[in-house]
Description:
The structure holds two protein chains of two kinds.
Chain A: H1 2-28, H2 33-41, H3 48-57, H4 74-77, H5 80-89, H6 102-137, H7 142-156, H8 159-173, H9 189-219, H10 222-229, H11 234-257, H12 266-272, H13 277-286, H14 290-318
Helix pairs in contact in A: 1-14, 2-3, 6-9, 7-9, 8-9, 9-11, 11-14, 12-13, 13-14
Chain B: E1 2-4, H1 7-27, H2 30-41, H3 43-61, E2 65-67, E3 91-92, H4 93-97, H5 99-103, E4 121-124, E5 130-133, H6 150-184, H7 188-196, H8 204-227, H9 240-276, H10 278-293, H11 296-313, H12 321-355, H13 359-366, H14 371-407, H15 419-426, H16 438-465
Helix pairs in contact in B: 1-9, 2-16, 3-8, 3-9, 3-16, 6-7, 6-8, 9-10, 9-12, 9-14, 9-16, 10-12, 11-12, 12-14, 13-14, 14-15, 14-16, 15-16
Amino acid sequence: MSAYILRRLLYALPILIGVNLLTFVLFFVLNSPDEMARMQLGEKRVTPAVISNWKQEHGYDRPLLFNEKASGLAKVTDTIFFQRSVKLFAFDFGSSDDGRNIGYDISQRMWPSLAIAVPVLLVGFAIDISLALFIVFFRATYLDFGAVVLLVAMMSISGLFYIIGGQFLMSKMFHLVPISGYDIGIKAWKFMILPVIVGVVGGVGSGVRWYRTLFLEEVSKDYVRTARAKGLTERRVLFRHVFGNALIPILTGVVVVLPLLFMGSLITESFFGIPGLGSYTIDAISNQDFAIVHAMVFLGAVLYILGLLLTDISYTLVDPRVRLQ
Amino acid sequence: MMLVILWTDALVFLLLALAIGFALYASRHEHLRAPWRRVARSRVGLGALVVLGFYVLIGLLDTLHFRLPLADPAPGAAHAATERRFAPEVMSVFDYWARPLRQRQEKTYSAPFATHLFVKEAITQPDGSVVRDYPRLQYGGRHLKDPKQRGWDIFDTALRGQIEGLVVWGLITLLVLWGMARRRGLALLAMYAEVRDGRTDLPWRTALGGLALMLVLGFVAGELALKYHILGTDKVGEDVFFQALKSIRTGLVIGTLTTLVMLPAAVLLGVMAGYFRGWVDDIIQYLYTTLNAIPSVLLIAAAILMLQVYMANNADQFESLVERADLRLLFLCLILGVTSWTGLCRLLRGEALKLREADYVQAGAALGVGHFAILGRHIVPNVLHIVLTTLVLDFSGLVLAEAVLSYINIGVDPTMNSWGNMINSARLELARDPVVWWSLAAAFLFMFTLVLAANLFADVVRDAFDPRLRGTR
């Protein structure tokens, strides 16, 4: 098992390098560091001296990918790409183009992101599963049919509608909670309510439908027939046997997204003005702050790979037939 | 008239040609025809198809672009062999057809069916005094002498539209019934009874019922739209109904072209990874894991922003705003394709892994058929159903994604009509009192109808092609 994990971690290296390279190319293929400097300094009245000064300060004074002037290995290492990427592997994110420490910012902004993402996941999970079980209990009735139609309709509504509708209904008409914003510490709860509700409601359509399919698949299996033949009540069969067994694919499916919760939701956060990592990234993109985008993409990739690894491990934990080697 | 073919137009035509080609191919192969027959037999599927048909029709009309010739400045001298000149504005057949909607621009906001503007203005009375009041609209309800007659006029017009719609529907129904009756050798009335009682093989009753609904709605909306702004006007006074209709093309293009541009890569790489295994598989797996590892919104945002910078620096390369917006749309499709091809690729890889062990593939290999012949003749045709279902399933998600991306300004060009842009420009108006809700409502309504029809249709298609799922719903 530990050998397997080690090998998977080694596999992650080329993927992370690839991710870095891709982000780098995407950022610099159309935009030279000169243009970036001009943008950061403000377009007007920028002398070449100021630009080169800025580039030197921020470490953009090297060639992009390949240094012809250097000799030997330094041809590759004395470049912006190499200098920027190597530090990331040690999780040293450096400083952003306006001089703030990225690692510190991330550690600060992580919490608002989690404060929204974790409740959305947990509450959504509980509600989706209960609803799905309820629908499966009444399967092949008009209630089931009606519920499925409703779910498809909910899936077809744009996520923006939930956000705008929620803000309008809860904040503008009934003045229950603030429209957007955030506060420090425990006082943040009233800012969290609306994003969490919107996140949960927006996910009900696809979530319940997916769980319903999983449960139905499980219901048609042999052990369920055995349980019924044994004389168990339908309720006991469903809530005990079917639920327990269907939980395996559900839980392993959730594990993949667990690490990515840190990243927050780009869209929800920018709509509700939550100072999490999602809005951090969006801001960085519109300011063309390469250092932050680079760091966030790297972080996202690491978490994604971690999620895949955790999924594999969780399979072995819940299903003894699966062995990692 | 000068035809103009934009990039996305060309690709839409290519897609149309591919769809027709595929339909012809499928009609000659029983294993592909059977699932489609199941789709057609499903009432939900056929109903959704009717709705989708209307959307596609409008989208296609909006895809045929041209430039109108300019009226010759001096009719006599025009013979002097000067080349004909064309208006700089690129129009589509739909624009031309919906001229009345397009040209009737008010000053600013007005509510649906309003006869007066939404904001007060200083109006000079006939006797010279100035009053601040809501002025009459320039076009909406101008034919009314007294705005109080509006209720009856709307009722009248709607009734006329309804009758027109029903007449057109009746003609189509008659034609269909006649055709079916002739093929079956039944009398027309007997055929009618069959359809009415739902005894036909295909659910014609549902199809014709859906058609009746859409035609009546279309004609009523059309008749009313000639007299009023049925969904109001936006900030600069443009008709919202027209905008919503124009946005159909954008939504359809995003939903379909994205899949089209990613299809070759996904199919080729996925099938090759599964079939060849070994280092080919390793490389391809590495490729899609790497792409997957980057959060897709980030990738899209970065790419679009880079494009914006490029377009700003090279503004002279684009002839017109339309062309520029069109290129941006195409680029958005490309980048959405890059972020979404990995799912299909992985599915196809898994399927090819299974198929390469199939007896007929082994037999082909033993008989000395080359790798690429096996891929082309045995593997690819046998994964086509997966490609098709993914294509249909992805569609609605992409339409929804467009709205979200445009909302955070990394979607289509701001000058292009799209539901996302409509929502984006209307969102701040919710803070007004009374609320300006119609732009938002129109965008959400049109998007919802399309996505719902697409979702229902996708479900039916998936059920028809995936025998494993049959009976679970």
